[in-house]
Amino acid sequence: MHDLIHPLRGTERHYRTVFISDTHLGTRGCRTALLADFLRRISCDRLYLVGDIVDGWRLCKSWYWDEGHDEVLRLLIAQVRRGTEIIYVPGNHDETLRGWLPHLALAGMVVSGFQLCREAVHVTADDRRLLVIHGDEFDGAVRYARLVSVIGDWAYDAAVALNRWFNAARRHIGLPYWSLSGYLKRQVKEALKAIDRFAVAVAGEAQRRGFDGVVCGHIHHPEMRRVGEVLYMNGGDWVESCSALVEHADGNFELLDWAAAHAYAHAPRTAPALQPA
Ligand SMILES: [Mn+2]
What we know:
The chain is an alpha/beta fold.
């Protein structure tokens, strides 16, 4: 009898390099189950944590930690034990770490196998030099960027339906027509423009400094494309998109959509197995 092939089950994928960012551990938003699943199923020579890994070190009021968060931390330490080099570039939500950097520099900058640095330079298998930064330095460009993930396609569809009811109500109390979906559409358009401004700003910085590309996070929008003369790569996040950027042994890069991969691998097998006639 044939069985469906489950691409993730029981297999471990090895990559030259893995980049993850914006896990926001310490908040309820972190999708710890998916992140733990990812960390269990991949291995790599080098793992970059590209900022906003642990959130709210300063905001103890909203601090949230459960077994899922413990498990992620345990798996990261397990990666170190098996020889993975971990490079941690703090972001704006874990910027407390930035304050430690001068002291850590004196101590060799390695804490339990985690190497901390303000920014990193990654050399790919095919000898390209990539700047690795979180990206909040370019916040000026990015006011709207997060809206895109808030107002997704489904929300837009819902808004169109809601708009009818909304305007019926407005009519009822004598107010003129106002398009909610039009408003949301304009917001999404602004957000997309902001994402583009962010990419252009980050890539511009990398280009000015003579890099072949840049890896960043911060705006929770996974993307990989050429911007100007450099390769712009954003690994996304583990709050909404659950994505990671990986480098294969030959220096090729790939964006992994772990939420989609996981959903596929664990989809209920409702279709009967085909029997040969
Ligand atoms: Mn950030």
